């Protein structure tokens, strides 16, 4: 039985949990005059508004005011969809003058309410800026508009045998500008690193409308402070990313994946070490799925990859992907690894499958990538994307479940499932707590700040890759010191003294 | 009371390594064929055939003595045999041809299979294979083999039930009007179908324990010469091109313009 009190912080910390919605008394709402001005900058199809002069039907604006999970509901009465950086610049200049808050929005697939208005700010969607500006097949450097959808970019560079350095389940909808503004991680980070490394240059519209053009295609350029790093992961609070220059790696000649069933969670860490050592440079992904998530996936028609007999009472599963230059070489490494794992004195795995064709390769990935959609079918999820030491993954999931049980909130009447899956290779756990019948304040109160405190105890991150948005603004202090937060506020003041750029997000 | 000596079933599954169906096909620069420098895997219809053989064994248990897979192809085809062994076949035969040799044609394959069947000391009772390969879409090998052997054949099978005691197989076939039920005397040639609604089966993944076991299963290597078969193609491919790109239609402003455009296109009119 888990001892809960070991996770509870001393009292003085708990008092710092205050979760409130901001009032934007310094900002103005959009009015008819503003719309008239925008009409002089933008084509009619680029302006949506429920105000009488435009009268867009509410249904057409709705998608811009609700996030993908249906958790965050905005109140913007107007949405702008500029087609050029110049238009973005003019919009921002005007909004600065009129003190209108701006919410930059990409594919609206964010999971922390970062792309939804809080109080009637105007939504500035980058979706209409979706041209590839250039691609050099020799260097692999791609220059594109911020509104390009990630999957479209992958398809664009595929014939040249290149791949995007990041990949995530939302690839069919998320836009590269949003990926960069949230420093998205994803399934390939293990191999290709983060956007802080792969982005070469950015074109950004600053909160006063000035265009900061640092769209370089240089691989190395140490000339002054590296400003782009502020906007990568800046979640649109320091400026709007309008153009991107990114380094794309060559497509691997050989890709394979395996799906392994483990008898118990404790084997994950030694398995990771063994796999890392034996596969070496060809390992390109290492993903974790707990039993609850796996069973849920099966119920919704994902897989099955293994028969029920083969799975037995396996407690968790691991997906490993390899990418290399030579199929024979990679298969040899994989086969050696599998033989070692199966014939060990005390095997770390019960069983597993190895993809035998591109189709099987895709369906093995589909099981992992499809989990997020299954979660949405189960109910409304509370998602906690945390970085904690690998050895603690299961403890964190179990602690949360115990907590809900102890509050009488575990069962079909409230929280129906607590599960974990994620990029275990990066130490990143996606904890999903499913509210079968919808979001309720007492559910959130039971979860927060409980989960943040567990994470802080382990010196982990309350947001490994999803970002802060509006969801974790008040939890920032669990992972960053007051000194850090103070510096961040000073930087915000430098770029956005009027606080019009995605107000109420990231900083408390 | 022991039943009269039932001959245990020996199943032969011919398989083919073909361009993977998810690959985007491109014609090669010489226009002699398609670009083969792409991912290959087991012909999906053959995967279903292997799976069906394994399921027959799961149903009939000891009545199935052996499941043997065979492929005629270059050295790389050995991988495809390994996959079939990992799915549950017992042994494999690789009729190896040179990497540079032209792809064998259905008649050549059928003759090679006939020679192979005649070499099997214990005989062959059921041959299950894919109805067609997705690279040439010929759909002929099974039928030709049945003709050469003088055996019953049931093509486009969507359901297979073998009764070793009665020495028959009940097979449901996909036909244009719906389904046809056949009862065939063994030995029989069955070709498997892949229709969405009446999918014969869902091929299993190769599990690790089976992959390990597959490494130890025997793979016999033969050449066409040893089988006494000549695989030289009888057909010559003159040219391979992509289909003409569909040109978009055009709009005309009025009937006069329509007539002008029709005339330009060489369409002449005749008074009724």
Automatic annotation (TrEMBL), chain A:
Domain spans labelled FAD-binding PCMH-type: 72-251
Catalytic reaction(s) noted: (R)-lactate + 2 Fe(III)-[cytochrome c] = 2 Fe(II)-[cytochrome c] + pyruvate + 2 H(+)
GO molecular function terms attached to this record: D-lactate dehydrogenase (cytochrome) activity; FAD binding
Alphabetical keyword list: FAD, Flavoprotein, Oxidoreductase
Cofactor(s), by name: FAD
Xref: InterPro entries: FAD-bd_oxidored_4_C (IPR004113), FAD-bd_PCMH (IPR016166), FAD-bd_PCMH-like_sf (IPR036318), FAD-bd_PCMH_sub1 (IPR016167), FAD-bd_PCMH_sub2 (IPR016169), FAD-linked_Oxase-like_C (IPR016164), FAD-oxidored/transferase_4 (IPR051264), Oxid_FAD_bind_N (IPR006094)
GO CC annotation: mitochondrion
Family according to the record: Belongs to the FAD-binding oxidoreductase/transferase type 4 family.
PANTHER family named in the record: D-2-HYDROXYGLUTARATE DEHYDROGENASE, MITOCHONDRIAL
Protein name: FAD-binding PCMH-type domain-containing protein
UniProt organism field: Suillus luteus UH-Slu-Lm8-n1
TrEMBL record, chain B:
Official protein name in the record: Probable electron transfer flavoprotein subunit beta
Keyword flag Membrane: no
Required co-factors: FAD; AMP
Classification via PROSITE patterns: ETF_BETA
Record key words, sorted: Electron transport, Mitochondrion, Transport
Protein origin, superkingdom: Eukaryota
Job of this protein: The electron transfer flavoprotein serves as a specific electron acceptor for several dehydrogenases, including five acyl-CoA dehydrogenases, glutaryl-CoA and sarcosine dehydrogenase. It transfers the electrons to the main mitochondrial respiratory chain via ETF-ubiquinone oxidoreductase (ETF dehydrogenase).
InterPro entries: ET-Flavoprotein_bsu_CS, ETF_a/b_N, ETF_b, ETF_beta_N, Rossmann-like_a/b/a_fold
PANTHER family xrefs: ELECTRON TRANSFER FLAVOPROTEIN BETA-SUBUNIT, ELECTRON TRANSFER FLAVOPROTEIN SUBUNIT BETA
Membrane-spanning residues: none
Compartments it resides in: Mitochondrion matrix
A single BP term in Gene Ontology: fatty acid beta-oxidation using acyl-CoA dehydrogenase
Organism in which the protein naturally occurs: Suillus luteus UH-Slu-Lm8-n1
Cofactor binding note from Swiss-Prot or TrEMBL: Binds 1 FAD per dimer. Binds 1 AMP per subunit.
Electron transfer flavoprotein alpha/beta-subunit N-terminal domain segment(s): 31-231
GO terms assigned for molecular function: electron transfer activity
Subunit structure: Heterodimer of an alpha and a beta subunit.
Gene Ontology cellular-component terms listed: mitochondrial matrix
Keyword Cytoplasm: no
Family statement drawn from the similarity comment of this UniProt entry: Belongs to the ETF beta-subunit/FixA family.
